[in-house]
Amino acid sequence: MKKTKLIKLCALSLSIFLLCTSAVKAEPTANPPTQQTYTNQEILQQLLKARIVYLGETHDSIEDHQAQLAIIQEMQRQNRKIAIALEMFQRPFQSVLDQYLAGKITEEQLIEQTEYNQRWRFPWEYYAPIVRFAALNKLPLLALNTPTEVTRKVATQGLENLTAEEKKHIPPLSEIRTDNAEYRQILLEVYQQHQKAAQGNSTAFERFLQAQVLWDETMAEKIAEFVKANPDYQVVVLAGKGHIVYGYGIPSRVERRLGVGKVKMRSVLFNLPTDSPSSAKKPIADYIWQHLE
Question: Domain count of the chain?
Answer without folding.
Answer: 1
